[in-house]
Amino acid sequence: MNPRLLTGFALSLCGTLAAALQPQAPEASLANLTRTSHIIFVGRVAKLQASNLKVVAPTETTALVTVEELLDSPPSLVGLKGQEVTVELVRAGEVKLEQRAVFFTNGILFGEHLEVKEVGLLPVPADVAKFRAEIAALRAQMADETLKERIASAVLVVTGKVLETRPLKRAMRSSEHEPDWAEAIIAVTKVEKGAFRGGKVTVYFPRSTDERWLLSPKFRSDQQGIWILRREGRFGLPVTGFTALNPADYQPLAEQQRIQKLLH
After folding, report:
1. 159 beta partners
2. pLDDT by residue (tens digit) across 60-89?
3. Half-sphere exposure of 237 (CA within 13 A, CB side)
4. Class of the 149-262 domain?
5. CB of 219 within 8 A of CB of 184?
């Protein structure tokens, strides 16, 4: 497995992985298991007390599991079907050789292969397609909840178009994780939330693809969409502008009705 394909996915887990790795009770529901996992698949136990990563020693709680059907995962893992992954089980003896189950997991190591930590297991359903659709519906609900939280905490939500972008020369380099700040000048066509007078708004964004800033939205001239904005005082940015640093803070125009629905 190509480690580069996993980089973005690994970074996306940084904020939630600690909570997600807490083992769930056996009676955990599909909703709870989905909310606390990022990689869900139908798997068959190929080998017990085993590992296919050089840096992971086999233990009583590791097993090699063949991914038969990938039910939900980040886009970078779409090629996981048919591969063996090392699974760190919640407890020793939880599964048997050749046992099939739905594995709810989170990635914990990305190298020549993938190691995941089990959150919980469920029996393989008779209708896998329906099960996948239920997981997708839960993911959509979770995305709405996250977006609603971002909107609620924003000081300004606007629809508009980027007129131009330019480097922010006043920002000084301070560390190896320098964001390389730029500013986007946005022509506002509609204010969805907040008080704003004027036809343009300045949004500061990091151009850097360093791991700290990789997932932050990057803007370009003529880009249209919806910006969910807040003031940012941590980086010495000019107080006249706004930021949209979370991946959910920029939405394409096609999401306008969804945004308006979540505003009410």
Report:
1. 190, 226
2. 999 999 999 999 998 878 889 999 999 999
3. 24
4. mainly beta
5. yes
